[in-house]
Structures are given as structure tokens and as C-alpha cells.
């Protein structure tokens, strides 16, 4: 078990190493002069040479990578070309927005997706099941930004035209400042992200529950006279949960990338919109920082999934 | 065989046994599935719509990238809504939404189909090789799959586009690179089961080489998962492209794409007054992905009897 986790940890580190190599090569071998990007078009040759010297751009490539990697290991992502602020600071300033968005949406999508999936699986083929499945199919097919824009139009713009403000159009209020305002500003982004993602969970839960409900031990439990509610939630759901945990790990891991469009639609200044701005302004250190943070999220999420697995499934624990 | 051994009298007495090919059975099943039928019809119409793009531009007199500021915008500069001049309304630059929608359909369909075919080919190859050869080959390839799956794809795509510049081939390349993994995993699993089967043993004992077995004996048995997964890959590729275009990293303006149209509508929040700018491209995108997903599910039911009326 310890070896298993150690292996997974090693793999996570390998992924991060390769990802850092990828972004490094991408940006430092790619056309374009970082010195000019910092100093602007009107910079003198002297100034450019000075910047190159400071950034170590005159060093051989492997030396540059080693410097880059060693700074990285110290948690130093360098400075933004545009604002000259440390990249870590820029990212940490925006992390609460993205965390609030993902955290709230996750609670919602689990609360919607799992009960819908369980309800479907309890009576396959029934009207309830069909409605559940149609919901899941539509949710899976809905591009996030389309749903976001439609919700903004119907729940913000139309009421606003009629003279009352149901939801704010955009922006973020800090939780510490006002919890009510914080939630009110995030309701529409939460619903958007939750509906689209809940669909995946509804399908997964349904498929898993159908499989588990056909097992012998479920019949035994029912024959013993265990209440149906207990059969479903205590006996069946527990074993159906393992794939759900994997899915949750994957989703949380990739969410940093996934929320980019939602942040754009709802004008939230999170990490995703930081990435988009950085791409538009060719601010390479910021892009590198966000990509690596995204990789770190995925790696950590994967390891957490593995740990959760060992707690949920005895077969993995003994393997 | 048995039909030949029957006497003529017995043959006429027994009810006629109609042989149906598996293709025929699949089509029959799909024709009975109303949802799949509607989805397939929608996709046929969509292809016709995309093909008719120049025709629509001719009929309306509005080439896709031309701006009709006099007729398409009110004196205040607000785009005009759906009407006789602009059937689905005009956009913020006075361009025809219907014509741009048709040209955007071309982009979505081409990217969806080309990227999915390419990704499916890679996924099939990697999956077959990993599953068939096993051992170290499998370990290396499986780790590669894990590796690609661990990359935050949208962020990596943004980084790539920011360095190389947005273009259609790059969009397709990025989509392919991040889409082949799930099919590779499925195929690998199937091949591991198939390679133990008697017909593979038989082929081997008859002297068939590894590649001969892979392509002649194993590949045909993978038709069902390949068809299903490739169909389901198309909508995700279409959404991936639309997302890239929406973020300004896909199709380069002024060329039309659904994601780009939505981005322009969202950019200055103009859609909050001009609803048609989000409704039509949004619904086009939704119905297209929905149609492919419904068809993929229908195909799964038709091709794989085990999943029928069970876990979809």
C-alpha cells in the first residue's frame, strides 16, 4: 500500500517534470524575444542586452532550464512581463475566486447528479428514468459557455429590462466582505458549471447503481428485510461510489482549465481569466505559472483519488 | 449450411428463415429508435446546411464576411433582429447571422470529423499495440496515455496557441493530441480479452504474423467500440473547437465559426440586447452535440446487445 502510493507520487512528479520541460521548451525555443516583450518595441540594444543578462537568456539552454527548475522548486515562478509582479502573487490573488466557483459548483453538482442517477437506477425504464436520462444527455451536450450565456440572458437581462435585478451580471465579492453578496454573485456561475457537470455524475451513478443492484448481496440484504432506503444508500451506493470518486478527482484536477470559459462569460477575475489575459498579452511567465499550477492540481487530485480508493475499496488496500 | 441439407418438402414447410447481416440488423434497430432517427436526420440536414452556405450567401445577397452597416445596423449602431432582410438577424458589424452560421457549420463539422478520425486512428493503433504485445510495450504506452490524460488540456492548448498563433490546423492538432487517450484505453482492454481467444490462437498456429493477426483478426472484432467511441468523440471535438474559438484561440476572425460568433456576442455583452446572436449559434452548437451524442448512444444499443435497456 505504501509502495503503491509512493509509485503514484513518483508518477505525479514525473508528469510535473515533463510539463515543466514542455512549457520551458515551448516558450524559450519559440520565436519571439522575451527581452523585447518586457522592454517594449522602443527599447535600446543596451537595455535589451541588460535584460537578457538578468534573465540568464545568454546561458546555454540546459543551464537555463536548470535555473528555471531550481527556482520552480523554491516556489518562484518569476515575474510577469506586464505588471512586473511576482507570478505566484498574481495567481494567489485570483485563486480564491476560482476556488469559490469550483467549490460551490461541486457541492451543487453532487447534490443534483447523484440523486438523479440513483432515482433513475431504482426504476430503469420508468418515466422518472427517462426524464433523468434526458437531463443527463442534454447536460452532457451543453457547451458550458452557451448555457452560461443563456442563463445570463434569461435570469439577468430579461428581469433587468423589466425593472428588477434577480442576479448580478458579473463580478466577485469576497466571502469575508459579505457572505450573502458572495453567494449571490456566484449563483449563476455555480448553476452553469453544476448543471453541465451533474449530467456526467447522473449517468455514472445510474450505470454503477444498475450494476451493483443486480448483485447477490443486495438480494440477500433485501431478503433479510433491510429497509429499501438502507439497501440503496448503505449497501449499494457505497460500492458504486468508487468510480464517482475517480471522476470527482479528475474533474477537480482539470477544473482549473475547465473554469476558464465560465470566468470569461461571467466576468470573474479568477485564475482562468488570468491565463486568457496572459495569452492575449504574451505574458509568458504567467502562462507558464498557470499551466504548471494546473498540472499540480491534476497530480495532487490523482494522488488523493488513490488514497480515497484505498479507504473505499478493500481490494486495492490489500493489493 | 442447414438449409442445404433439408429436403425440399421440409424447406417449404418450415417458416422461412431470413438471414440478416449485422449491418442490416444495426440499421433496423436504429430505424426503430426514434431518438437516433431524429438525431441522424438532424445531422443530414446540418450537412446540407453547411454545403448550402455559398448558396445561402447568394440567395440573401450577403457574403459571410461582408458588413452591411446600412441595412444590418440601426442608425444607433444596434444590429437588426430577424426579419425579411436578415432571416436570423445581423451581428454587431452588420453581417448576416444565417450565412455565417452555415459557414460556421462547415468549420464545426470538418474539425469534428477530421479531428475525431485522426484521434480515433491513433487511439486504435496505440490501444491495439499495447493490448496485443503486453509487457513492457504495454507499460510504456499505458504510461503515455496516463501522461497525456494528466495534462490540463485547455491550459496546455492555450499555451501552444499563444506561442504558435491561432489557426485551424493547430486547433485540429491540439484536439487530436488530447482526444485519442480514452479510445486507446478502451481498445487496449478489448484486445487483452481478444488475444486469448481461440481464433487468434488458430491464426497464430497457421503461421500468421503479429501484424497480420492485429489487422486481419483482431481489428474487425473492434468495429463496435470504434464506431461508438468515434461517434461520441465528434461532439467533444466540436465543443473543444468552439471553446478555443470562443477564447479567441481557434478560427481566426473574420472567418465564421460558432464559437467565434458566440465570443463576439459575449465580448461586449451585446447579446444581452441582441438575443439572436447567442440563441442561434448556441442552439446550433447544442443540437449538433446532442445529435451526435444521441446517435452514439443509439449505436451503442444497436451494436452491443448487452447494454440494451441497461446501463447507458
UniProtKB/TrEMBL annotation, chain A:
<feature type="domain" description="ABC transmembrane type-1">
    <location>
        <begin position="95"/>
        <end position="309"/>
    </location>
</feature>
<keyword id="KW-1133">Transmembrane helix</keyword>
<feature type="transmembrane region" description="Helical">
    <location>
        <begin position="97"/>
        <end position="119"/>
    </location>
</feature>
<dbReference type="InterPro" id="IPR045621">
    <property type="entry name" value="BPD_transp_1_N"/>
</dbReference>
<protein>
    <submittedName>
        <fullName>ABC di/oligopeptide transporter inner membrane subunit</fullName>
    </submittedName>
</protein>
<feature type="transmembrane region" description="Helical">
    <location>
        <begin position="286"/>
        <end position="309"/>
    </location>
</feature>
<feature type="transmembrane region" description="Helical">
    <location>
        <begin position="182"/>
        <end position="202"/>
    </location>
</feature>
<keyword id="KW-1003">Cell membrane</keyword>
<comment type="similarity">
    <text>Belongs to the binding-protein-dependent transport system permease family.</text>
</comment>
<keyword id="KW-0472">Membrane</keyword>
<keyword id="KW-0813">Transport</keyword>
<feature type="transmembrane region" description="Helical">
    <location>
        <begin position="131"/>
        <end position="156"/>
    </location>
</feature>
<dbReference type="GO" id="GO:0005886">
    <property type="term" value="C:plasma membrane"/>
</dbReference>
<dbReference type="GO" id="GO:0071916">
    <property type="term" value="F:dipeptide transmembrane transporter activity"/>
</dbReference>
<feature type="transmembrane region" description="Helical">
    <location>
        <begin position="244"/>
        <end position="266"/>
    </location>
</feature>
<dbReference type="Pfam" id="PF00528">
    <property type="entry name" value="BPD_transp_1"/>
</dbReference>
<keyword id="KW-0812">Transmembrane</keyword>
<dbReference type="Pfam" id="PF19300">
    <property type="entry name" value="BPD_transp_1_N"/>
</dbReference>
<dbReference type="InterPro" id="IPR035906">
    <property type="entry name" value="MetI-like_sf"/>
</dbReference>
<dbReference type="InterPro" id="IPR000515">
    <property type="entry name" value="MetI-like"/>
</dbReference>
Automatic annotation (TrEMBL), chain B:
<feature type="transmembrane region" description="Helical">
    <location>
        <begin position="109"/>
        <end position="133"/>
    </location>
</feature>
<keyword id="KW-0813">Transport</keyword>
<keyword id="KW-1003">Cell membrane</keyword>
<feature type="transmembrane region" description="Helical">
    <location>
        <begin position="35"/>
        <end position="59"/>
    </location>
</feature>
<dbReference type="GO" id="GO:0055085">
    <property type="term" value="P:transmembrane transport"/>
</dbReference>
<dbReference type="InterPro" id="IPR050366">
    <property type="entry name" value="BP-dependent_transpt_permease"/>
</dbReference>
<dbReference type="InterPro" id="IPR035906">
    <property type="entry name" value="MetI-like_sf"/>
</dbReference>
<feature type="transmembrane region" description="Helical">
    <location>
        <begin position="153"/>
        <end position="178"/>
    </location>
</feature>
<keyword id="KW-0472">Membrane</keyword>
<dbReference type="GO" id="GO:0005886">
    <property type="term" value="C:plasma membrane"/>
</dbReference>
<keyword id="KW-1133">Transmembrane helix</keyword>
<comment type="similarity">
    <text>Belongs to the binding-protein-dependent transport system permease family.</text>
</comment>
<feature type="transmembrane region" description="Helical">
    <location>
        <begin position="272"/>
        <end position="296"/>
    </location>
</feature>
<protein>
    <submittedName>
        <fullName>Peptide ABC transporter permease</fullName>
    </submittedName>
</protein>
<feature type="transmembrane region" description="Helical">
    <location>
        <begin position="226"/>
        <end position="252"/>
    </location>
</feature>
<feature type="domain" description="ABC transmembrane type-1">
    <location>
        <begin position="105"/>
        <end position="296"/>
    </location>
</feature>
<keyword id="KW-0812">Transmembrane</keyword>
<dbReference type="InterPro" id="IPR000515">
    <property type="entry name" value="MetI-like"/>
</dbReference>
<dbReference type="Pfam" id="PF00528">
    <property type="entry name" value="BPD_transp_1"/>
</dbReference>
Amino acid at each position: 500500500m505504501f509502495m503503491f502510493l509512493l509509485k503514484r507520487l513518483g508518477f505525479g512528479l514525473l508528469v510535473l517534470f515533463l510539463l515543466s520541460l514542455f512549457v520551458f521548451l515551448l516558450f524559450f525555443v519559440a520565436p519571439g524575444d522575451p527581452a523585447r516583450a518586457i522592454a517594449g518595441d522602443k527599447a535600446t540594444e543596451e537595455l535589451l542586452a541588460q535584460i537578457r543578462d538578468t534573465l540568464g537568456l545568454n546561458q546555454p539552454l540546459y543551464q537555463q532550464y536548470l535555473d528555471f527548475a531550481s527556482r520552480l522548486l523554491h516556489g518562484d515562478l518569476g515575474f510577469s512581463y506586464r505588471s512586473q509582479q511576482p507570478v505566484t502573487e498574481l495567481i494567489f490573488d485570483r485563486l480564491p475566486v476560482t476556488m469559490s466557483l469550483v467549490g460551490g459548483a461541486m457541492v451543487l453538482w453532487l447534490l443534483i447528479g447523484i440523486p438523479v442517477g440513483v432515482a433513475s437506477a431504482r426504476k430503469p425504464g420508468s418515466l422518472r428514468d427517462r426524464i433523468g436520462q434526458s437531463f443527463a444527455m442534454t447536460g452532457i451536450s451543453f457547451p458550458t459557455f452557451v448555457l452560461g450565456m443563456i442563463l445570463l440572458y434569461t435570469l439577468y437581462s430579461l428581469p433587468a429590462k423589466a425593472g428588477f435585478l434577480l442576479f448580478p451580471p458579473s463580478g466577485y465579492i469576497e466571502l469575508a466582505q459579505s457572505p450573502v453578496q458572495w453567494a449571490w454573485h456566484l449563483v449563476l456561475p455555480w448553476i452553469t458549471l453544476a448543471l453541465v457537470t451533474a449530467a456526467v455524475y447522473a449517468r455514472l451513478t445510474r450505470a454503477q447503481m444498475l450494476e451493483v443492484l443486480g448483485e447477490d448481496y443486495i438480494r440477500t440484504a433485501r431478503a433479510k428485510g433491510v429497509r429499501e432506503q438502507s439497501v440503496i444508500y448503505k449497501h449499494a451506493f457505497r460500492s458504486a461510489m468508487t468510480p464517482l470518486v475517480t471522476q470527482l478527482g479528475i474533474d477537480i484536477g482539470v477544473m482549473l482549465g475547465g473554469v476558464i470559459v465560465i470566468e470569461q462569460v461571467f466576468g470573474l477575475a479568477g485564475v482562468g481569466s488570468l491565463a486568457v489575459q496572459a495569452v492575449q498579452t504574451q505574458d509568458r511567465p504567467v502562462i507558464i505559472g498557470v499551466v504548471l499550477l494546473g498540472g499540480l492540481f491534476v497530480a495532487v487530485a490523482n494522488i488523493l483519488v488513490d488514497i480515497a480508493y484505498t479507504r473505499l475499496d478493500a481490494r486495492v488496500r490489500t493489493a | 449450411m442447414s438449409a442445404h441439407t433439408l429436403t425440399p418438402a421440409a424447406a417449404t414447410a418450415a417458416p422461412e428463415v431470413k438471414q440478416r447481416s449485422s449491418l442490416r440488423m444495426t440499421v433496423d434497430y436504429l430505424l426503430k429508435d426514434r431518438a437516433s432517427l431524429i438525431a441522424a436526420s438532424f445531422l443530414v440536414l446540418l450537412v446540407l446546411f453547411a454545403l448550402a452556405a455559398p448558396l445561402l450567401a447568394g440567395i440573401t445577397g450577403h457574403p459571410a464576411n461582408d458588413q452591411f452597416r446600412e441595412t444590418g445596423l440601426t442608425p444607433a449602431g444596434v444590429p437588426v433582429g430577424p426579419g425579411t432582410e436578415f432571416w436570423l438577424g445581423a451581428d454587431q458589424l452588420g453581417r448576416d447571422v444565417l450565412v455565417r452560421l452555415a459557414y460556421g457549420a462547415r468549420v464545426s463539422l470538418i474539425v469534428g470529423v477530421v479531428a475525431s478520425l485522426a484521434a480515433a486512428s491513433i487511439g486504435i493503433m496505440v490501444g491495439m499495440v499495447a493490448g496485443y504485445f503486453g509487457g513492457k510495450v504495454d507499460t510504456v504506452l499505458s504510461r503515455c496515455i496516463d501522461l497525456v490524460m494528466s495534462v490540463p488540456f485547455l491550459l496546455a492548448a492555450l499555451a501552444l496557441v499563444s506561442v504558435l498563433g491561432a489557426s485551424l490546423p493547430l486547433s485540429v492538432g491540439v484536439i487530436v493530441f488530447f482526444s485519442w487517450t480514452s479510445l486507446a484505453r478502451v481498445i487496449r482492454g478489448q484486445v487483452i480479452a481478444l488475444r486469448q481467444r481461440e481464433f487468434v490462437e488458430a491464426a497464430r498456429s497457421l503461421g500468421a504474423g503479429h501484424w497480420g493477426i492485429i489487422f486481419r483478426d483482431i481489428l474487425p472484432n473492434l468495429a463496435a467500440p470504434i464506431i461508438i467511441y468515434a461517434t461520441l468523440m465528434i461532439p467533444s471535438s466540436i465543443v473543444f473547437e468552439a471553446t478555443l474559438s470562443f477564447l479567441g484561440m481557434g478560427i481566426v476572425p473574420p472567418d465564421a465559426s460558432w464559437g467565434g460568433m458566440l465570443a463576439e456576442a459575449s465580448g461586449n455583452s451585446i447579446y444581452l440586447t441582441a438575443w439572436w446572436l447567442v440563441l442561434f449559434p448556441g442552439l446550433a452548437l447544442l443540437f449538433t452535440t446532442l445529435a451526435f451524442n444521441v446517435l452514439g448512444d443509439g449505436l451503442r444499443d444497436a451494436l452491443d446487445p448487452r447494454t440494451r435497456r441497461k446501463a447507458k
